């Protein structure tokens, strides 16, 4: 039985509602995967996106998926092969920079909830027509930032977005204040230098601060 887009969007929406920021992670060393996930979850960011940009990404997903209270997804899904590998590694959801019919079909077949990417109204409308109403706005800043996303949302109030790409502590609140934004993806909560040095307490502190964004 395949996962219908409406159900996929419902599941990804539930995950996106758990915290205002979804850490977008590039894991170079699998040894850092579990303590990194533990620090982020302890800081109040339970939903984690591990991008498939390094040779260790799938092993990192396997390690992180064992952390209590965490929900680990695979980002940068581009091909059906990516989808199958992510699901086998223990990913509970997927994130893609864009969307193709082949990718959507693979996620449905593997029962992997997907947060598909769109950068324009036409791309968002195409996904909406297929049943997706929870969408990643990517690349957010390069596509016009919060003003562009606000403009897209006016004629498409049925769609909720997770902007990713260029989101930072300086502009995250601007995105989170938009009516059509549920959460945002950001990489600043896990700086490479902190991960490399094993500064898990500092990363937990960054996560705690990010978990409060949009709540005031």
Automatic annotation (TrEMBL):
Pathway: Carbohydrate acid metabolism; 2-dehydro-3-deoxy-D-gluconate degradation; D-glyceraldehyde 3-phosphate and pyruvate from 2-dehydro-3-deoxy-D-gluconate: step 2/2
Keyword Lipid metabolism tagged: no
Catalytic activity, EC: 4.1.2.14
Catalyses which reaction(s): 2-dehydro-3-deoxy-6-phospho-D-gluconate = D-glyceraldehyde 3-phosphate + pyruvate
Record text on subunit structure and interactions: Homotrimer.
Matching PANTHER family: 2-DEHYDRO-3-DEOXY-6-PHOSPHOGALACTONATE ALDOLASE-RELATED (PTHR30246:SF1), 2-KETO-3-DEOXY-6-PHOSPHOGLUCONATE ALDOLASE (PTHR30246)
Name of the protein this chain belongs to: 2-dehydro-3-deoxy-phosphogluconate aldolase
Organism in which the protein naturally occurs: Shimia gijangensis
